[in-house]
Amino acid sequence: MRIGFIGLGIMGSRQAANLVRAGHELRVFNRTRETAEAWASEHKAEVADSPRAAAEGADAVITMVVDGAQVSSMLLGEDGEDGAVAGAPAGTLFIDCSTIAPADARRLGETLGEQGHGFVDAPVTGSAPKAEDGTLTIMAGGSPEDAERAMPLLEAMGKLIVHCGDVGQGQAVKVISNSVSAINCAAIAQALVVGRSAGVDLESLVEVMGAGSANSTMLELKARPMLDRDFSPLFKLEHMLKDVGLCLDEARSAGAPFLFAALARELYGAGVGRGLGEQDFAAVLEVIEDLGGAKV
After folding, report:
1. CA dihedral defined by 33, 38, 40, 43, rounded to 10 degrees?
2. Are residues 89 and 10 in the same domain?
3. Choosing from 130, 174, 222, 236, which is the catalytic residue?
4. Does position 80 have pLDDT exceeding 70, yes or no?
5. Active-site annotation holds for 159
């Protein structure tokens, strides 16, 4: 398929590479052109001068950017002329792999549908390593017909593809799931700080938690970086804060409390305030160390 791909950050660059490996033809756009040119040179793709140019002649357009405002800007444009929709052929399938508010996804789906296009919200989870090897979990929201059209592309980027329902439901599932990850990561950091304060051997603590019911993907991914104080970003703390905030907005609209997510938002928000936003979200450890008065 001919694909316009917009957004070549930590995740998008790896997802786009898997699409090329699957045999698809890509024309890419990134706000920093040098990044797009370097990626395109390595992967034998074409660089577009604008989102509109990326969509010209495309069968599908995939966005992987930071938030709803950026998705809207890339697709619809600031003036209605430079967005991808302006260059897309009739009946183009748009797939958004960013994590945005479910309500924003529904609005975009409605706008694109009115112009004769298909839309699937398809946020991903798994961080950079799974984006690299094409084993992401992808939560898709959209009509059965659009989800079926998107499936070959999603399968090139992910291992588990779950059709969650109508447009917006992929985003709702994603932000709830990510909030649980954020809570879990913060709980691991608290356990390590308590362990340090109690004089516990932290290597033993992590080994025992990993062997029992306290084990989790977050423990496997974040305990070692916390012990080593290696917060190289696989998923930025500021992005996790955004996702938890989106989840709490959805929870409030639904009239359902999510108390632990609210606490996590406070911790990650404090992390951004301490200048940790660009680091991996495991850096929430530093906030909890300050609260607990002990350094891991």
Report:
1. -160
2. yes
3. 174
4. no
5. no
